[in-house]
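Let us begin with a simple case.
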Amino acid sequence: MAGWGSQVGRNGAKGAGYYTFMKASKIYSELKKHARVSKSFHVPGHKAARAFKSMFPVADIDVTELSYSDNLACPEGVIAEAENDIAGILGVNYSYLITDGATCGIMVMMYAASKQGRKIIMPRNSHESVWNACRIMGLEPVVVQGPYKDGVITPPEPDELENLLREDESIAGMICVSPDYYGNIAPLEKYSGIMHKYGRLLLVDEAHGAYLGLEKSPDYAGNFADIWTDGAHKTLPTLTQGAILSLNDEKLLPVVEEGLSIFRTSSPSYPIMASVEYGVKYLAENREQMEEARKAAEDFRADQTFSTYPGKDWTKLVIDCSSADVSADLAEEALEKKGIYPELSDGRYLLFYLSPMTTAKDLSHLKAVLSKILSGKKLKGTYEPRPQIAPVARTYSYQYAVKRPSEYVLLSKAEGRMAATNAGITPPCIPLVIAGEKITREHIAILSGAHSTFGLVQGRILVVKNQQ
């Protein structure tokens, strides 16, 4: 099997050249070697006992920090080697394994930003973790919203960013999401040029695009960002919660490593770490598989059996059910009865989340089943458009709203009240109403009809108390 060759790795060091995959999968190989001969007198408590292992086969490599397994907090052995190899494959200077999901990486990035300013520019459709980081770090969000395209919020216009930076020196920089759930890719090169012109940071939530670095895509965040986070588990063959935080600028190392020590768990999952290394190296060795999956996705769209949202990210197959006059929610229910589970439905669109592991056969099966559902008479006429939420005039800041005395009220009684927390639909974990905004009738209608939400507790929402 051909290796990935010599690459730039941590501290600019050259990679070790050509490998066979199993030899290169260092964390997994070391764990398996010791699993055959060791007896556990350390955590975790399952001890890889036979009954447990019969249900959870990964048990024998689920260990803690030992002499052979290295320590994620201060890696010097196989973890350090794996991180160096990952950085080399991605063509960046520093990469860090994360077992707490991209959310942990976002917390670290926002921590770094908080050391450089009191505010941060962020798109309205930022993930809930970004808003939570603002709350924890005391950062005031400077909310920007791009135009709607076919019912979906797109990335904000670069010109708006320059105006904001020119007028406010307290802005640390910008965090943006690219790609987003619908496959929109932000103009990172333009964002980067503007941020760096004013000496500010560009942070990128690339949770949905970990494959871009392996594809050597011009849209890869590593080409432009100061710090970025990849949710490896979303598009690579990696266990859930596996992620990577990367950067190139050595000057940011102290604050990034300080942030990692604060937000990363002190009991990281070794199976997750091993799987992140596996996912990166597997696709580095099997690029043709990624190309085959990409071609299959492009062929699916090209035959125009379905109307699709025109995102640039091939791993997001977004079917527009409105053109078939079918409710995406009802289509999702029908698909699940056939054993097909989409990533999400928003009433209009069905999102099918692909990856380099998706095959042409998978997509052929999806096309056959989905065609019957959308063309059948049973669901015709069920589509009802949902209102687009226009930008809400903010009377008070986000930080003001989250720090004021608050109370829970029934969502049905909350119209006109100021939200003291964010609330939205999950997935995609993007706020519909943001703390500091007035709750509208449209907010209430959408949240009340959603299957899964965040920010609500037993039908109640947190609002700022009315002053007497």
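The second case is a distinct protein. As before, the sequence precedes its structure tokens.
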Amino acid sequence: MTSEERRRREAYLARRRRRKRQRRMQIIFRGVVGCGAVLLVALAAIHMSRKVQATESLQNSSAKNEVSGDFKQKVILEVPDYQVELLTPNEYSRPQTAMEEVRGIVIHYTANPGTTAEQNRSYFESLKDTHETKASSHFVIGIDGEIVQCIPSSEISYASNERNSDTISIECCHADKDGKFTEATYDSLVQLTAWLCGKFNVPVDEVIRHYDVTGKECPLYYVEHEDEWKQFKKDVQNYLDKYGVEAEEDLS
């Protein structure tokens, strides 16, 4: 083989090696792009699914209200034991905006494991000075079952986004980051929710989670454990059936 033939052969082999490397890089690149696209599509699907669930829940809630004109909820005559510690009027936690009409009860969790009802009430109060955000709740239930009222039921709280104008909000403290309520918190929540349903003639179907309004994972434990949420609503209904009396007039 002449030197010229050898040169041509080496050039040919070099071109083949470059083409192989290019093909391998193209395959790797397509794989990475493909995986990224699949991941983005999956995340978008999850987000959209949660939004659809929240929207459907809100639509179902409105539809139920439209056909419940003759509905009469039983009334709990025994008022729950709670402390009235109203927030100072201010634009960040107690704007004193009148409630249009109570059409639902929204359940929340504080997302601050181990904190007390008083501490969470104090946080809402502090917003008048810090201006950190707009947040509050009508009631806060502590780990030991104590209940503190922060906002009058005739005013809105900053808790449930577009449902602020027609719902009563209840924040619940929890011991651990999983958001599960203690037995004492749970019992107080059942009693308070049932009493509010009777006071404002609200069907138990209109007891909802913050999640059902916006898709936010609140209260976390009852978003992750749908069966436990259904059981909670059954317990509220059972409490009304057992301790409630027929309403003779509109008590709202």
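The CA atoms of residues 74 and 246 lie 5 Å apart. Residues 54-68 have pLDDT under 50 and may be disordered.
Keep these points in mind for the review questions at the end of the chapter.
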